[in-house]
Amino acid sequence: xxxxxxxxxxxxxxxxxxxxxxxxxxxxxxxxxxxxxxxxxxxxxxxxxxxxxxxxxxxxxxxxxxxxxxxxxxxxxxxxxxxxxxxxxxxxxxxxxxxxxxxxxxxxxxxxxxxxxxxxxxxxxxxxxxxxxxxxxxxxxxxxxxxxxxxxxxxxxxxxxxxxxxxxxxxxxxxxxxxxxxxxxxxxxxxxxxxxxxxxxxxxxxxxxxxxxxxxxxxxxxxxxxxxxxxxxxxxxxxxxxxxxxxxxxxxxxxxxxxxxxxxxx
Length: 266
Fold this sequence. Notes:
By secondary structure, this protein is of the alpha+beta class. The chain folds into 2 domains: 3-211, BirA Bifunctional Protein, domain 2, CATH 3.30.930; 217-265, SH3 type barrels. The chain is built from 6 helices and 13 strands. It has helices at residues 3-13, 32-41, 91-107, 168-172, 178-197, 201-211; strands spanning 23-29, 49-55, 74-80, 111-115, 119-122, 125-138, 141-150, 217-223, 230-237, 243-247, 250-254, 257-259, 264-265. A 7-stranded mixed sheet has the order 1-2-3-7-6-5-4, with helices on both faces. Strands 8, 9, 10, 11, 12 and 13 form a 6-stranded antiparallel sheet that branches. A hairpin with a 2-residue loop joins strand 10 and strand 11 (250-254). Helix 1 (3-13) crosses helix 5 and helix 3 (91-107) crosses helix 5.
């Protein structure tokens, strides 16, 4: 399916009022987040969505390269223009939860587990991720570009990723209609974002915790802001969305880092 066809089919399926209105696409860009930042600077409204079939400079968290086979996956960015900066640190989890909602709606409850801080998993393997970046906003509140990448109908991965990555096709055994999935993601994102706007942050955080991998397990986490790793039992999330760890010397709250060890039950 070409990008214009995917855009048209998705537009016919949209049930949203804001998200996906308008919806644009290009066959190839360096990064959908970069394309959306440019569009935002031109005055794009909240909910504007940009998608592509292939990114040649796509990035994940911490500047890591994000690559995906063209024509079978979803790579998109959505523009958010929050009215204020209250609970802004929870937004990455809200976006990830929205994608999890869509994956579970289409592929069942075993899809779309959340690995803090921004990964989506099907079992132990990564199926996608989100990346939020700020751009020019109004007043003191920045606009936010929410990038979403999902392995949808990819059938194989390079040897270095075969044990680490999967796709919805490989997980479910069924080919996924990308227009249906995209329309579902935008509907769930609009619903969760509206919930966040209305201040229902406790309910959102509890839902994220219920789908979060490693809760109650002992992990080793490598924070991005310090050299030393931290080993502790995952307690859940702080009010601001940080990961709460019970360690030998007390509770730690970490806001950025990587879980690199295999967890063990305690």
